[in-house]
Fold:
Amino acid sequence: DFDRAEEIKPSYHGGLEVFLGGKYALRGGVMHDTYRQATYASGGLGFVTNKLGFDFGLRQMVDGGAETLVAFSVRLFVQ
Structure:
């Protein structure tokens, strides 16, 4: 909502992803939300083939409150 410019606050994100053996993904990152004054740490694991992929992720608020997000996804690649 850019109609209320005084309420616009940035958030900062950073992270890394490493592929192991060409099929396994290991992810980690951090985020700071200046609107909520909260900082989060995240991590995830993934498995990818030519036909499908599985991902698991966890985001934990480490400053500014108590919040946890758990995510799981399945992807099917159609060629």
About this structure: The chain has a mean pLDDT of 92. The chain has no helices and five strands. The first strand starts at residue 11 and ends at 20.
